[in-house]
Amino acid sequence: MATKHFIQPQYTNGYAGDITVEATLENVVDGNNSVDWADVVTISFDGSSEIEPVPVNFNGVYSYLRFKTNADPADTIEKILVRN
Length: 84
Fold this sequence. Notes:
Elements: E1 3-10, E2 16-24, E3 38-46, E4 56-60, E5 64-69, E6 79-83
Antiparallel strand pairs: 1-4, 1-6, 2-3, 2-5
């Protein structure tokens, strides 16, 4: 049965780019083995008006999640809230 996951990038003021949620079913994630990551959801920001949190829900049974950006998030993304 799939589990509902919730993410919410916080205070993305000025961030222009994408945040991609990636997930894996692997039991171990470390530097000693290759891990197959799959894109689950992508959130796009244009850098103009996103000063409020942006909630996103998705379903799945995953062992680990990670976040990837295609632009420098320094000083523009305060945090990403994750509940699963």
